[in-house]
Amino acid sequence: MAGIRSVISTLGANGEEIIGPNTILWHYPNNDIMNGSLLTVESNHFCVLKSRGAILNVYETGQFPIETPQRPLIGSIQQAFYGGQSPWQYEALYINKSKLVVQTQGLALSREMAEMTYNVDYYIHVDTKEDAVALVQHMPYRGHTLTTVDLNAYAGPVVEQAINQMIQLTPLESVNEKIGDLTQLVFGHLRDFLKIYGISLNTVKVLVHPADPRMKALIALKAFGLTEKEAVRYYTAMLMAEKGIISAPNMAVGLPFNVGVFFPGMGIEATMPPAGKTPPSVEPAP
């Protein structure tokens, strides 16, 4: 292995970029980083170089030769196999500094203890070298990648706490009126939390709606100016109409449905015939 000048980058063997839109941090998985290796950093990445757990340097765009003082190794076997250098002496951690979107969702309870579903999209990025170091130092990861899903495992409870803080004090039908204040509250809590990990928060989008589709339909009907009782009648009438029940209009207007009805001007009384008999035929008017 001695004398081989390896190139360290985020490109795979087929030239495909390994760091995708859901990757925040990627740890170079091979153990071929030696003194003299070329470290390649793309324009939308940072690279944190570590040696035996200590951070040596942070690189931005370009290609850099790794030149650091070597430490003597003890043992003839290590000397023979690695030419005086041990594997994993250096580690390269690439940080994605592009703007990434993270999604989270959950349940909250309104003032009436009705379940509300929330969906939150928040946009993040790592801005500076110092932020890249903070991310490496404070955000744990497993394997070779840190994804937006992993980040959301930490940030999701912060979002949930912020949303419940306001939703639990707000009537069900007034939740959407508070969506602006709710967004600002989530933004403030999330920004302060992510700052510890060197992550900057750009924007937050919050959507809240009743978890029960029936409750959602009733609130939509009330938005047309109906009272609570009228909204229930119209909702029931819509369900009846979907099943082909002819009394659905009566339910909507709140009137009874009679089996025997006289239609003025037609000379016909609509009555149900006795069981087992067919209704009399009606001759058309000349």
Number of domains: 3
Strands of the widest sheet, in order across it, are 5-4-7-2-10
Largest sheet, in brief, is: 5 strands, antiparallel
Helix percent band: 25-40%
Question: Could you say what the CATH topology of the largest domain is called?
Answer: Tetrahydropterin Synthase, Chain A
Radius of gyration: 34 Å
How does this model look, in words?
By secondary structure, the protein is α+β, with helices and mostly antiparallel strands. It folds into three domains: about 5-95, no CATH class; about 100-210, Tetrahydropterin Synthase, Chain A, CATH 3.30.479.30; about 215-255, no CATH class. About 30% of the residues lie in helices and about 25% in strands. Helix 3 (about 150-165) crosses helix 4 and helix 5 (about 215-220) packs across helix 6. The N and C termini lie far apart (about 110 Å).
Briefly, what is this?
The chain is α+β, with helices and mostly antiparallel strands and 286 residues long.
List the helices and strands and how they pair.
Blueprint: E1 7-8, E2 23-27, E3 38-41, E4 45-51, E5 54-59, E6 62-65, H1 76-82, E7 90-96, E8 100-109, E9 115-125, H2 129-138, E10 145-147, H3 148-167, H4 179-195, E11 200-210, H5 213-222, H6 228-242, H7 248-253, E12 261-263, E13 268-270
Helix pairs in contact: 3-4, 5-6
